[in-house]
Amino acid sequence: MSQQRNERPAGSDPRPARSAAGLPANGSPAHGLSDRGAPVSELPDLPEATVARLPEYLRALHVLAEDGGDVVSSEELAHAAGVNSAKLRKDLSYLRSNGTRGVGYDVGQLIEKIEHVLGLNQHRAVALVGVGNLGQALAGYGGFGSRGFHIAALFDADPVRVGDRIAGLLVRHIDDLAEVVAVEHIAIAVIATPAHAAQGVTDALVACGVTSILNFAPCVLSVPDNVDVRKVDLAIELQILSFHEHRKATLTALPEAIS
Amino acid sequence: MSQQRNERPAGSDPRPARSAAGLPANGSPAHGLSDRGAPVSELPDLPEATVARLPEYLRALHVLAEDGGDVVSSEELAHAAGVNSAKLRKDLSYLRSNGTRGVGYDVGQLIEKIEHVLGLNQHRAVALVGVGNLGQALAGYGGFGSRGFHIAALFDADPVRVGDRIAGLLVRHIDDLAEVVAVEHIAIAVIATPAHAAQGVTDALVACGVTSILNFAPCVLSVPDNVDVRKVDLAIELQILSFHEHRKATLTALPEAIS
DNA sequence: CGCGATTTGTGCACGTGTTCACGAGCGCCT
DNA sequence: AGGCGCTCGTGAACACGTGCACAAATCGCG
């Protein structure tokens, strides 16, 4: 854990932890039923790249389920999720695959399994800090409930905003953080504050016991090792696109002298 | 290009294109001045992982520049950007490094170089499609101008919204897309529509000549090979955090029987 | 009941990305 | 001027992720 975890196309993702949690880290086969699947109730391991794709599979599966399909082939599902079918099969094999050869995967069963792995059985309570431009939009975004989350509380440091109601939720002062986090059993928080306030908010969240943070502020957050941070930065995404745009432009400008 | 490009911790990123643009793909040394740096005016190649980190370096550099520093060591900058210092040095080496051994990097010079590589010299015009909850927040977000972009036009399909002014910008009907894109020289678009409308909007954008898309709608977009798509999905980010949360919970619940 | 069509599961080779560790160059101080 | 300490640049080893290609397994049909 620790540090920003996004690293869009990372290859390994630092992750010095993992052994810090009690796993002996002896060269276990990692994937595929090592001896028996029984003793270990949960998955022994799961590549980070796979974890990042599971939500996409889940979304695609929900769409398929609504259209009435009850089984999918890896090819279909892979196409719907925008990935290679071999990759999809390998990803699903990490979850003790339940596909049927010659047939495909049972949609309902697969949905349930992925939701279980992602820990989405319980609707998780999320705190949203910073009710500015972006924060209000996130608070008003309805797509959370259907995907395993609900925003349980809104916070802001600006006294003018405290007391407002946004999407039916009361905006509370940041000083009430500890109390509300404890009462609502909040473990995940979203930071939508200006950059200069983000580290302070982070420290407060961590002190309250929050262990997962989604950061929209354009800055690096430093957190203890047991806290996960993911970052979403609009401008960075655009700049990456800009690079490719720039490259495409310079390439097409060249005389395409091949052979 | 082609397909969704995010793949948070991807290892390679499909990328069947690249040869589709005219590069012979002969095993060029890729990094580091092959013979002379002169003949090739632009960078010959650049790992995707590096490209994704350059914007973060750029942001950190701007902060350092404001604090008055005129040189940075790789260690300092790496810390500010939240990465390993060796990784940072290697990344910068791809840009024909301009660091001075024993001293560090010239902040101003490095900023200029990265901005050049990312194609941020020209302020790029961006179209924003979908002026709902999220779209309005994005339109109102002020952090664009300072980072190389400006929103040049807003579009929506809802006649009720067309004609509104948001952050000083007129909301136009999606049917005017082609005209405006041509006039404003727009190459990058942001999609903030509901999922069911996203593919249609994408097709329209591609038809107008847009070649880079940032997609906030929770769905996979299919586009031709020469178009880049990056995806940002709130719920997916939260679900990834949920997984780690889930795993942390089950791990600490186990008796930490080591040795 | 057996065969063929079909689709999963996965071993293996390859490409990409990360990290360490150390040589090369630069500035400063004596 | 010469040496010394500091920092960049990078080769090489390693870890991770991907995709092909094929064996194993299952269903349906004659």
Q: How much of the polypeptide of chain A forms β-strand, as a percent range? A: 5-15%
Shape of chain A: globular
Largest interface: A-B, 88 and 89 residues
Unreliable segments of 5+ consecutive residues of chain A: 7-40
The biggest sheet of chain A amounts to: 7 strands, mixed
Order of helices and strands of chain A: HEHHEHEHEEEHEHEEH
End-to-end separation of chain A in angstroms reads 50 Å
Q: Give the averaged pLDDT of chain A, no decimals.
A: 85
What oligomeric state do these chains adopt?
homodimer
Secondary structural class of chain A = alpha/beta
- What's the arrangement of strands in the largest beta sheet of chain A? 5-6-4-3-7-8-9
Question: What is the structure about, briefly put?
Answer:
Chain A has 259 residues and is of the alpha/beta class. Helix content of chain A is 37%, strand content 14%.
Task: Describe the protein in words.
Two copies of one chain form a homodimer. Chain A has 259 residues and is an alpha/beta fold. In chain A, 37% of the residues lie in helices and 14% in strands. The first copy, chain A, contains eight helices and nine strands. Chain A has helices at residues 48-66, 74-81, 85-93, 107-117, 133-140, 177-184, 195-208, 234-253; strands spanning 71-72, 105-106, 124-129, 149-156, 165-166, 169-173, 188-191, 212-215, 228-231. In chain A, the strands form two sheets. A seven-stranded mixed β-sheet of chain A has the order 5-6-4-3-7-8-9. A two-stranded antiparallel ribbon of chain A has the order 1-2. The termini of chain A are far apart. The interface between A and B is large, with 88 and 89 residues. Chain A binds a DNA duplex (30 and 30 nucleotides) through α1 and α3.
